[in-house]
Structure formats: structure tokens, C-alpha cells
UniProtKB/TrEMBL annotation, chain A:
One GO BP: transmembrane transport
Protein name stated in the entry: Sugar ABC transporter permease
Species for this entry: Polymorphospora rubra
Similarity comment: family membership: Belongs to the binding-protein-dependent transport system permease family.
Major subcellular site: membrane
Species classification: Bacteria, Bacillati, Actinomycetota, Actinomycetes, Micromonosporales
One matching Pfam family: BPD_transp_1
From TrEMBL, chain C:
Subcellular localization: Cell membrane
Protein name according to UniProt: Sugar ABC transporter permease
Species annotation: Polymorphospora rubra
Residues that span the membrane, as ranges: 54-79, 91-112, 144-167, 246-268
Coiled-coil intervals: none
InterPro entries, alphabetized: ABC_transporter_permease (IPR051393), MetI-like (IPR000515), MetI-like_sf (IPR035906)
Gene Ontology BP annotations: transmembrane transport
Organism phylogeny: Bacteria, Bacillati, Actinomycetota, Actinomycetes, Micromonosporales
Organism domain of life: Bacteria
Ranges where the ABC transmembrane type-1 domain occurs: 55-265
Topology class, membrane: Multi-pass membrane protein
Membership in a protein family: Belongs to the binding-protein-dependent transport system permease family.
Annotated Gene Ontology cellular component terms: plasma membrane
Keywords: Cell membrane, Membrane, Transmembrane, Transmembrane helix, Transport
From TrEMBL, chains D, E:
Organism whose genome encodes this protein: Polymorphospora rubra
UniProt lineage: Bacteria, Bacillati, Actinomycetota, Actinomycetes, Micromonosporales
PANTHER family assigned: MALTODEXTRIN IMPORT ATP-BINDING PROTEIN MSMX (PTHR43875), TREHALOSE IMPORT ATP-BINDING PROTEIN SUGC (PTHR43875:SF15)
Domain of life: Bacteria
Keyword Translocase belongs to the record: yes
GO BP annotation list: carbohydrate transport
ABC transporter domain boundaries: 4-236
Protein name in UniProt: Sugar ABC transporter ATP-binding protein
Keyword field contains Transmembrane: no
Amino acid sequence: MTGPATTATPAPAPRGEAKTATATTAAARRRRARRRTVLVQTACIAITLFMGVPIYLVALAALSSREALNEFPLALLPTDPSFETMRVFLTSTGVTGAFVNSIEVGLLSLVLSLALGVPAGYAVARYAFRGREPYQLFLLMTRALPIVVLSVPLARVFLGTGLYDTTYAVALLHTALALPTTVLITSAIFVAVPAEHEEAAMVFGATPARAFTRVVLPQALPGIAAAAIFTFVTSWNEVLGAAILTFNRRTLPAQVLSTLSDSPLAYRFAGGFALVVPALVFIAFMRRYLLNMWGTTIR
Amino acid sequence: GGSSTSGADGGEGAVNFLSTQFTPVEERQRFETILSERVKAAPVAYNPVAPGVFASTLTSQADAGNMQISLVGGVHGDLAPHAQRFENLDDLASKLTDRRFPDEIAELGRLGGAGTMYIPWMQASYVLAVHKRALEWLPAGADVQNLTYDQFLTWMRDAQRGNGGKPVLGLPCGPKGLVHRFFQGYLLPSYTGGQITTFRNPDAVTAWQYMKELWALTAPASTNFDNMQEPLARGEVLVAWDHVARLVNAPAASPGDWVMAPAPRGPKGLGYMLIVAGLAIPRGAPELDLAKSVIEALTTPDVQTEVLRRNAFFPVVDAPPATDLPPAIALEAEAVRRQQDADGTIVALPPVGIGARDGEVSQVFLNTFKEICLDGRGVQQVLDAQATQLNTILDEVKVPCWRPDPVGAEQTCRVA
Amino acid sequence: MPVPVLLIAPSVVFLAALFLWPVIVGVSQAFTGTDGVTLAHLRRMLDDPYFWPAVRNTALLIVVLIPLQFAFALAMALLLRSRPRLSSFYFYVWCVPLAVSDLAAGLIWLSILTDRGYLNSVLAHLGLGDGFAWLSYQNPTTMFIAVLLAELWRATSLVLVIVVAGLQNIPRDYDEAAAVFGAGYWQRLRHVILPQLRPSLQVALILRTILGLQTFAVAQALTGRNFPLLVGETYQWYVGLQNERVAAAIALVILAVSIGTAMVYLRVLRDPSIQGRR
Amino acid sequence: MAEIVMTNLVKTYPGTKNRATDDISLHVDDGEFLVLVGPSGCGKTTLLRMIAGLESPDVGSVHIGGRDVTDLPARQRDLSMVFQSYAIFPHMRVRQNIAFGLTMRKTPKAEIERRVAEAAEMLHLTDYLDRYPAQLSGGQRQRVAVARAIVVDTGVLLMDEPLSNLDALLRMQFRTELKRIVAKLGTTTVYVTHDQAEALSLGDRVAVMRDGRIAQIGPPLDVYDAPADEFVGGFLGAPPMNFLPAHVDRTGDRVELVLGDQRLPAPDTLGGHAGGTVTVGVRAENVEVADGEAPDRVAARVEVVEPTGSAILLTVDLAGRPVKVQTPPTQRVGAGDTVWLAVDPNRMHFYDPATGAALRPAGTAGVPAPRDAG
Amino acid sequence: MAEIVMTNLVKTYPGTKNRATDDISLHVDDGEFLVLVGPSGCGKTTLLRMIAGLESPDVGSVHIGGRDVTDLPARQRDLSMVFQSYAIFPHMRVRQNIAFGLTMRKTPKAEIERRVAEAAEMLHLTDYLDRYPAQLSGGQRQRVAVARAIVVDTGVLLMDEPLSNLDALLRMQFRTELKRIVAKLGTTTVYVTHDQAEALSLGDRVAVMRDGRIAQIGPPLDVYDAPADEFVGGFLGAPPMNFLPAHVDRTGDRVELVLGDQRLPAPDTLGGHAGGTVTVGVRAENVEVADGEAPDRVAARVEVVEPTGSAILLTVDLAGRPVKVQTPPTQRVGAGDTVWLAVDPNRMHFYDPATGAALRPAGTAGVPAPRDAG
Ligand SMILES: Nc1ncnc2c1ncn2[C@@H]1O[C@H](COP(=O)(O)OP(=O)(O)OP(=O)(O)O)[C@@H](O)[C@H]1O
Ligand SMILES: Nc1ncnc2c1ncn2[C@@H]1O[C@H](COP(=O)(O)OP(=O)(O)OP(=O)(O)O)[C@@H](O)[C@H]1O
Ligand SMILES: [Mg+2]
Ligand SMILES: [Mg+2]
């Protein structure tokens, strides 16, 4: 093996008839690639329909008149949109206040559960301490017990503190409900952040806290975003706790959702839809943090 | 923190009113209008909640000794479990003698004890709603306003046949439906003359046999129906039995197409149930006096009529017959009146004095229904088994029977 | 004090302050009667005609639903990972059910599947009969499928979001290396992607199971009490029957099952390669 | 049959302006060992990735073994690779990591075991087979990556700085083994390295890259001895080739280079440039250093003395420019001493001062002195 | 004042049996440049990590600048480090990565900018300041890691193979710069490398590690010329030192080494071993190769000829053993030729065949020939 080609030949040697053959296989390959793209797109569209159509239908129903909802077969296109039920619903007593309360509770729970849960998630991910597993189970326990059986003693806890019938009480409860989720999800993401990055930060003079906020946290952003989304939507949609802990300062679901099933169908749709929209806006906002932005990760 | 959502910012000088009634958005809206227009004594923060929340809130506040609610309102079954948590309202009751509450209703307000625990607020009943299209199959000679259960069965059978094999009858058997009241207050009293004591006697067997046949003619989707006005409005069923408040929207759009009628009668008479809502004041409630003034205001004939007019709940006071009712409500009012005024009525009350076990007693009837009609078990065998269950509960609470069972003060109610 | 203890302490204190007493009260309810300790409530629970069907349905739902859901969520995540055009739009739509409460989800699916719902409307528009009773107690199979479908719709996004977040931190290097060494798509999935996704999958599995054991609103909306679930029974006993003691007994069953499965997941899915923990 | 033919490969990474590879055409024969060198960031990895199918070129095609594989996914190209960043799987033990390619090919268990043991032995990893990568040192991880690549018997082997974190001894041992394996299996190898000795001793040919292009390709010593331009001469070799501007003067028959006020004999072939200026390139080891004055030598002042072990590297000042020259370790010189330098005219290379390109027609530089090569 | 004193450092990683560092005591003077070399896996990184405070020793202590820092966290030790695996932050642009240490120290903005620009310039990263690490080549990433470490002005600088992925030219340029910076700031530096030239040209002292212990420490050329044992001799230098067993024979005044049936003069000091066997160590470049026979020379047959660019490496057979010798590139030899070898007795090293340890009292090996050093 002494005689490699003397120069860098720009063109491959064995061409000729082979050329057409390779050309066709290349074309076939490209066709296969295209077929793959089409397949992926088809799957995506199918799933999108499955996930999206129900939401479309609520929107449709929410903007239909009462009568339209009693017809059969139901119209599948918004032929005759009516904002009447929506209007009545949105102007009914307490809806604005409840909306404000819900936002307040949601954001407060978000901040609190991240503040409490992220450090704990980090500990679970990074340290092999005794009691790691019991701790996780302890977290889950609070979530595994149906809250309804705790409702009376829980309300009593808050009645004893003067927090009863404030948004703080609800926020605290929602924080507690979201905490297991936050801790576990963030811990799953923290394990994937190389410990070496943290070490580098510390070598360069960062305190553990700064190393965490500057280096670990940004890399764990997708997990934090996921946890944040859960916390917010959990809080946004939670009914029972909010209904038990407040009286005059309801959140939107407590104000609306709890009694929605007694309302006429049109209002149920209007209420259901109105409740979904703000959560959708929140998800739209958080979604970009779920996907990290600095290209592929490297080690 | 937080913004007020009750419309009256229930602070100092306001009455916090917790209620299980008028939860639907529109009804709530209308009742709040009545409160603000007609109740001048104090601003009222009206808070309609689901029954579970009602109970939890009341219990926790009472247990914590930190009562923040001034006034509660609910149907008898909502209030009964909390008898020991309410103020004695005898003084208020005596002040309100001019309201002339019917005796049996006032009696319910004592919750099986001696003192008045709640003041009657409104009443309601269950009737039949019938779309006029169903009348074409009505058996010859039958009067829709005065049916027997047998005629009803024939009618439904003919109607199903006429309707291309699809049942026209619907019953509220959904998870939040009230079909157990049909068994407790209508079917069984009409067939057996009783509710508890006769639970498994031969008449009861007949009644359930009848029910089995009727169920075969009932839309199977009924197990999802919490209220009947929507299936009716959709035309999914043409005939339905339900609480008046849960029927009122069906004829709203075209009252001319609808008929409202009393429930059928059985061998022992026309059994029907009285539904009473009451107002109570929790012990340790703030603004006690204001709350009493609100009760006074809510029991004036004027306000009572207004409630009927707007929200289809009937007065419990002696009010002049209301004119200018909306057509749908007028239909209902007429049917309720006919039902009350019919010959040979058997009035049934919801369980009295058994407090929190009300739900469990009702569940026994529901379980009986499930096992007989849905699971197809033998009637007698089911009744025997369920009777045991029922007696277990009753033996624990040890209360005398309530109507239509023979009421005797010293003896405890049991299934014979 | 060791660092990890300091880090978890706030959450422990917080939860204990809020829940310790309620949990003790709640749990003790199951064992106390008017006169002291009793097992009567447990017996009552076991005798209830709805209890065993509820156990069976809950188990069935969890066992069938969760694998389906994970397969579905993984498929979605992997589709997104291949970065098709419009992927960010797809991702958003696929997250949408997250925003929907279970009560609303029940309402939505009921409106689709009920006798005069959208599904039958579509069929009617297409001239395919005038309505099948999907949710009738007489058609337990379609009823079960309906519940399955609705739950799949409602709760898969949760798994999806966790999996997508987890996928973000897997360097593409490994996938590329595997491809170079001849691994096909499924082999890469099995040998490279899934093992690296293990922490996320573990968490999603735990959370999904526990939250799955907690939801009943959709099933209740669709089937009433024809398809009883354990949590639904808890609510029924607590709210409907106002017997908090039997409710607490059922809640304890749920708690035990939840913690039991979580423990199994934590043990079985423990990652042997993580030695880097301090 | 696994020759690799790259045709007009152009690749620009999204979001960057410069081409990572700029119209590269290259033919690697079946079984050839091609070494790729070039400054950091010149596109070596990119080129390997395009061969591997991990990056698809914007323009151009890749053929392997006569097949157009441009659109073929990596796993269908029958190759294996050592990644610059190792990319060993953190969740697998060393054993599974090494066996990965074999497992994917569904090799029988016993065979896998045998081959893994062999590769581990060769790379001194036997004791570490049951560890996870996180429990290894940097060099050990790199060796796992190498082992993983060489256990599979593929048509093409791509290695991206596979030995950068290993010590010289291990590197040398492995080099010998690699040569043996590759020769035995007839694997076509493309090997990226920054190590001079590796490039020269391993490669059948060496390709020098610069800014996404191939600056020169040829047998190692050709490239080393006769760099095609100043860049290659400066890049290959440690120390790099010295470049000095010189005036060409012809006095009768004699062609001479004028450096400052001193003169050096030049090859006759440079006569054509008489009167002009050229850049003279000469390697440190081709400068003969003498203590005493002699004809045809130029004087220079020693500025820095750097012992490198096997030789001494002097930086001397010649006509105001620093020149690196090498003497055997036995030579005794100190900073400040004056030394006399001579250069064999045949060892001189001449470049156009404007373009940096070799002045081929005018010198003998294009024809390297014949050598024995192992 | 930042001298580093390590005392009896022992570290065993959990889950492993062997000690990663085994009772290492080492003193690095303030401002000294210590180069650490050793086979892959010998514990170099572990030692650096213990100095940095990233790993706490099982036994022993670390003092920096007179302070016991054994239990001090990394950030309070005033040091900076180049990680073997770079550990640059993927979510920060190159600019932020380089500036990281300065930002943590709350350096003024303008100052940060200036210093980052300077470091980027030195490492040819100026064009890449606004990229994310994922958009860089391997060598560029490594340069970012180096730049990040040198922008901060700390008492101690730890570098773990900082240049392994860079080309020789860049490496050489950087070496010069690094020397300048470190000298200017008086930074105490510990530098791990596998590169011979780097080790010899950068270090004030070189420490050779083996299996978690320090095998030898001393000025570069001492270690190179007079390895303390066979291991060091074999490890340092490319090619490694040749080791040959030889019988020592005294004939009157003359001490000779008997290799097979040939004889070489040996230093007189070896006389004490007369009649015994020693291992002779000699470096390839210290063997003089001649074409013709002469007294005091031994004949050997050439087996392999390897041109390395600046020299030719011959593997010859001497008394049945392969010996590497080096000749200038001008020498013409081919495989199969016979050459005659001579070795200056002062360039020979002698080792105990049993232990591999240098026979110090009996040879001159302990005292290296005086040299100029830059
Ligand atoms: N986290 C760890 N867990 C267990 N063993 C380890 C760990 N890190 C390193 N080792 C082992 O300790 C020994 C020393 O490792 P170290 O990283 O210090 O080597 P090194 O000299 O830096 O090698 P290299 O030149 O390959 O980087 C090695 O045998 C390695 O396998
Ligand atoms: N993912 C990427 N996105 C943008 N630019 C990139 C990317 N990868 C590499 N580059 C750029 O492309 C050029 C070539 O990169 P490549 O990795 O091929 O260099 P290389 O020759 O392997 O260098 P090294 O010796 O440093 O590894 C570099 O300038 C680099 O900055
Ligand atoms: Mg590269
Ligand atoms: Mg190392």
C-alpha cells in the first residue's frame, strides 16, 4: 500500500455508467427522505387535530347561542356566532375580582413553589444524602391523599391564623400542592446539568448561590419552565381548596367552576372556555423556556 | 389580600350569606338583584357554593370557633347535618307568625328537635315535563294531568314504539341527579304508602317491579343526566320527571310546546315530596341582628313572589297568587298547584332528624335502583339486603319516622 | 448542618406546617368512631357495592392508560425532536390540554361523546347513522374507551412537557455517535435516548401515576357512577354521603397505592450510572 | 472497496458567514491512511462529519466505495468514528461502550467479548471495563472512545484527534497497533491530528487544510520537505520553517542570496530570479551550525537557547530577523555567542514574497531528495 | 505569596480500590511553573482538583500562600483553572464565558472588556466572541477555556492539558505568551501536559507522576537527562530511552560493558559493579551513528527507518534487542544496512536490573552535564 493517488482528484474515478445508477438511487433516497417528511408531518397534524379539536369545539360552543347547542346534529362551523352567553358570563358578579385573585394566587404560588422547590430539587439531584428517598415519598404523600378529606382540618389551620379568606391562604395551599411536582421535575433536569460546570464556576470565584443561579439554573431552564407551567395551571384550575379557604375572595375556578355544572350548557362552555384562555396565554409565554436557546447542549 | 368576589365586599356591617341555592350564573345574578333591590336591612354578600363546600365551610368555621358567616341557606338536606351548629331561632319564628308557614314545613325547621333551627325560605317540588309531541301517544282515556303509573307505563311504551324504538322518557340518574327523590317521595309512597317502614314489603316489590319495566322504557343516557331541562330542550327525551328548578329552562324558548303535569298516582295515592329550603344562622355568627333582618326581608310575601317570578322557587308563606309569571314558571306553578291539590295525595318528607346520614339513606335507594334496574338482580333479594343496610344506619341514629311513615315520637324508625 | 438538609428543610417545614395536622386528623378519621378506635369504617368501605368496581376500574385505568400515555408522549416528543416545520406551533397545541381543568375537560369530552354530541353530529353529517350511545352503561367497552381517550387527551401533555424538558439536556453527540456506530432509529431510542431520559421518565411516571390516582372528574362527567373510580368514591362519600370517615378510609387506600407505586418506581428506575452525587 | 470520494463539498453552518469547508474535493483510496492537519477551526471536524453523514453538505457529494452516500444516514455508511469530544455514553459501562458498535451489528456474544477484551488490552483499559465513564480520567475516556471505534470492522474509520489526551508513550504504542490493524483490515482511514510525529509516521498521505480548503496534499515527507506555500511550511514542523526575504544576485556562474550584508550560495535554478527578491524557506534542522567561520557561511548571534531534550533549539539573529536553528544536544552554545550557519542549497525553498506560493519552476524544491521510507 | 504546599495527600475515589493519589507531598514555590507529567490515569487531574478544592483529600493537607486551605471552598482559594474537559458554559456566549471569572470578582465593565479582548486576541478568538460554545470547533472551545483561566489574575493557575487540541503553531505561540504573562504576574502555575516540548520548555521544574505517586521531580533537563528510574526514562522523551541489559567487565583500568559479543567503554565509576549485570539506559539522540567501523563502536543492523521530519529515527538490532537511535535528516541509511554506534560514557545511565532504580553512587548519571538554558 505505497501508491496512493498522486494528486487530490476532484472527481471520483469510477463514474461512467455507474453515474446514472447512483443518480437514481440518490433520487430514490431523496424521495424516501421526502416520504419521511410527509409521514412526520402527517403524524404531527393528526396529533394536532386530536389535541386541538376539542379546544376548538369548546370555543365554538362558548360562542354559540343556547338554542344552537340544542340542535342535532350540531353545527361544526361557527355559522352563527353569539357572544351573548360569553358576555353574561363575563359580566356576572365577581368574575373580574376572581380573575384578579386567580392571577394573584397563580403568580404567588409560582414564585413560592419555585423558591421552595428548586433548591430542594437541586438537593435531590446532586446529593446522595440519607433520607433522599423518604423525602421524595414525603413530598408525594401530601399529593397522594385526596384533598377533600383534608378540607376541614386545612380550613381550620387557616382559620386559626387569620389567613382564611385571603388569596394568601389559597396561594399557600396551591404552593403545597405544586411543590412535589416542582421538586421532582426540577430534580430530573438538574441531574443532567454537569457538575463540572458548577465546579468551574466556583473555581472562578462564584459562591455556591451564584454558581447555581448563573450556571446551573439557566441550563435547567426547561425543567423550571415545565414546573412553572404545572404550578400555574394547577393553581389556575384548582377548585376545592380555593372554595374551602375563601369566602368573599374567590379565585375564578372557585367562583365559577364549582357551580358550573348546575348552569345551563351554554354557560358551562363559556365558563370553561374563559378559564382556559388565560392559562393558554401563560403557556404560550413559558413555552419558549422549555426549549433551550443556545443550540445543542455540549459537554 | 385579594379582591372581593361576592358583590358586597362582606366587610363590617354586611351579611355573609352562604347558600347552596341559585348556583347557576343567571339565577345567582337574578337573586342578587332581588337582594340588592328588596333587602334594605344590610348589604348581603351572596355566596352560592356546592353542597360539599357548604358543609366543609360551615364545619371548619364552627369547629375553629371563628364563624365568619352570618346566614346560611339550603334545602332541608343541606341544613339537617348541622343542627347543633345553628342558633335557636324560636324568637324570630314567633316574630314571623304572620308569615303563616304551613305546619309541616315549620316542623321540618325544627330538625327533629324542639327549637326552630331554620326558618323556611322557599319550597319546590318535582313534576313531569312533557313535550306536546309525546301527547300523541297518550293512551286513550288518559289525562296527562291525572295519570296513573300504569297509564304512564303504557304511554311510554307506545311512545317508544311510535318514536322509532327510541325511548322518550328521561330520569335524572346522573351523579348529581335527584332520582332518589323519585323513589323516596313518589314511587314508593304511591305504591306502599310509606318510605322506610314499607321498604321491603310486597307492595315495595311491586313498585320496584314496575320500576324495572319503566326503566326498560327510559333512555339509557339517563345515567348521565344531572338535570332534565337540557335533554328536554335538546329533544333527546320528550318526557321527564325532575325538580321544578331543573326543568324550568326546557320550555323557556317555546312555552307553547310544553305541558307540565303532576306525577302519576299509584295504588295508595299520589305520593309527592315536599322540598323545603330554609335559612339558618350559625352559632357565633357576626352581625346576628342584621342576619335576622335579612331573614325577615326574605320571607316577606313580596320577596317570596319575586323569587318565584325570577327563579322558580315557590313561596313558603301565604302569598297572594302571583300574576305576570313568565310562561315557563306559570306552567310549573300550575302543575305544582295541581299536584298539591289533587285527591289522595301522600306527602313525603325528606328524612327528618337523621342529620348527616341523609345522604347515606338516599344512597340506599340509589343502590337498590342500581342493583335492580341496572344490574338486573332479583327484587326481593336486593330489597332484603338493602333493608339491612338501611336499618344499620337507622339503628345508629335512632330517630322516629317521618311522613309518610307513621310518625310516633318515642319509637325509632326501622324497616319492618 | 449538611447542605442538602438545608436545601430541603424549607419545603419540609412548609409542608409540615400546612399538612401535618390535617393529615393526622384526616387519617385518624378512618379509624375512629364515636367510641374510640374502630375498623367499622374500613369494613363499611369494603362492603360498599361501588368499592370493588372502583378498585378494579382504577387499576384498569392506570394499567392501560399510563403505558399508552407514555408511548404517546414519547412519540410526540420524538416527532418534535426531528424538528418538522411548524414544530413550535404543534408543540403549543399539544400543550393546550394542560391549561384545561379536569372539570372542563369532562365537559368538553361529554359534549363530544354524548348521544347528541359532536361525534354523533359528525357521523350524522356524514350520514352514518343517527347516534350511537358511546357512554351508555350498556356499552362498557366504548365507555371505557371514551374515558381512556379523554384521559389520554387531558393528561398526556404533562408527560410530554416533562419529556421535552428532559430531552433538551441530552447532547446530540450521543445520538450521533450511536448513528455512526450503526444504530438504527429504534436502537438509538432504546440504547441512547431512553436511558438518558431515565430521570425525566421516572419523575413523569411517578407524578402521572399519583395524579392519575387523583383524577376522576372526567370519568364522572362521562359515565356518571357507571365507571366508579376510587377518588370519585372518596368524594362521593365525603360530599354526597357526608361520611368523612369512610371517605378517609378510601383515601388511605389511595395513599397506600400511590406511595407503594412511587417506591417501586424509585427503586426500579434508579440510575446506576449516577455516581457523581456528593 | 471503501474509497472515499468527496466532490466540491461546501458547508456553511447556519448563523455563520464563513464557509466551514469551502469546495473541498478529495479522493481517499481504498485502504489508504489519510492524515488531516490544519490550524484549529479550519474545518477538519466538519469534513469528517460530512463523510460520516452527520452533517449534510450545502453543495457537493460524498461517495464511499462507489456509492453516492450524500443523502444516506450515518448508520448506513459502514463506518466508525472517534469523536473529538469522545461522545462516549455516560449511562453505559466501559464494556458496553466499547461493545456498542458490535451490539448494533448483532455480533455474537462471545465474539463481542473477545474483541472488547482485545481492544481494552490494547488501550490499557482492562481494569476499567466495569466502570462508568464518569469514573474515568480524561485520557481513559478518550481511550474508551478509541476502543469503541476500532473494535468494529468497518470500511471507513474516522478519527478526530483520537490521542490528544494521551501520553507520548501510550500514543506511540497505539500508533504501531493502529497501523497494524488498519493494514490488516484494509480500512480506509481519515485521521485528524495536531501531532507532527503522528502525521508523518502514520499517514500514507497528509492533507493540510486551511480556512476550509486543502492547502496541500501528498506523502508526508513531500509535504514536510517541500511545502507548497509559506502557510504549509510555517504550519508543519516544530519549529516552523524559517522564512527570510533575500535578494538574488548572480555573479558569473554563481547564484547567491544576499541576506543583509552576508551572502549564501543558492541553487543555480534560482538564476531566473536574479536581481529580484524571494522568500527563502529553510527548516531549523537543515541549518548547519558551526562554531567557527568558514566560506559560504553566514554569522548570526544566538539570542535564545532552548533545550528540547533530543536537540537544542537556537533562536539566532540573522540580518535582523529571528531564525530558529537546531543543533545536536552535544553542541555547547550560550546566548550572545556568535555562530556560523550554512544551508545546503538543495534544502532551501523559495516562495514568491507577494503570494507566498512556492516558486516551483525555478527551484528543485518540488523534487524532494530521495529517501527511504520504512 | 502563593506557594503551594501539599502534604501527604491521599485520595481514593469511592467505589474504587486504588488510590488516585498516594501520599503525595509537593512544594511549589511562589511564582514557580511546575509541569506535571505522567501516564494517563496516574492522578494528575486528581491532584489539581485537590489543589483547587474540588476534591477533598482523604488524608493530608494543602496550603496555599501559607494558609491551610484544605477545608476551604474553591472560590476562596484565589485560583483559576483550565479543566481537562473545558467545562465552558454552554448557555453563555464566548465573551461571557471568558469574562466569567472577572464578573464574579466584580471587575469594572471597561476593565473586563479590555481584558477579554486581550485574551481573545491572544487565543485567536476575537471573531468568535459572540458565538455560543456549541457553534465552535473543538480547539476553539479549548481556547475559550484557556482564555477564561488567564484573564483573571490569581495567585495560582492550574492548567490541565490546556493545549491538547491545538495545532503546534498555535501551541508554540501561546507558550511564549503564557510564559510572559505568568512571569509578569508572578502566578504560581501547575501545568499538566503530555507534550514533551511543552514540559521541557515551560517548566521551572517537572514532576513525573506514576500510579498516584511522584516518581521524580526536578528541573526539566535533569529529569530528562538523568531519569531517576527506568520508568521515568522510558516515559519522558520521544522515543523513550533505550534500556539494555549489559554485563560489566573490568579489564585492568578499563571498565567495559559487554553487549552480546561486543564491547563498549563504560565510565570508570561503574567499576564497583564489575562482574555484575546492569541495565544501561541511553537516549536515541545520544547514540552516535557512523557508517564505518571504528574502535569503541558496536555494530547493529538497521531494521526500521522512520523519518520524523527534523531527524531520522532508526530502530536497530543490537545484540538481539531493538534500540532506537536518531540521526540527522542528512544521513543516508536503509533497512538492512549495518551501522556502527558509539555512546559517550557520560551519556549513559545505569539502573538496577531488579528494581529499575538508578545506580546513583556508582555513576555520574546523577550529575547532568552543565547546560545553558535560555
Ligand atoms: N470520579 C471518579 N471515580 C472513580 N475513579 C476515578 C474518578 N476520577 C478518576 N478516577 C480514577 O482515578 C485515577 C486518576 O485519575 P486522574 O483523572 O487524576 O488521572 P489523570 O492523571 O488526570 O489522567 P489523564 O491523563 O488520563 O487525564 C484514574 O485511574 C481514574 O480511573
Ligand atoms: N455548529 C456550528 N455552528 C457554527 N459554526 C460552527 C459549528 N461547528 C463549527 N463551526 C465553525 O466552523 C469552523 C470549522 O469547524 P471545525 O469543527 O470543522 O474545525 P476543526 O478543524 O475541527 O477545528 P479544531 O482543530 O479546533 O477541532 C470553525 O470556525 C467553527 O467555528
Ligand atoms: Mg475539530
Ligand atoms: Mg486528567
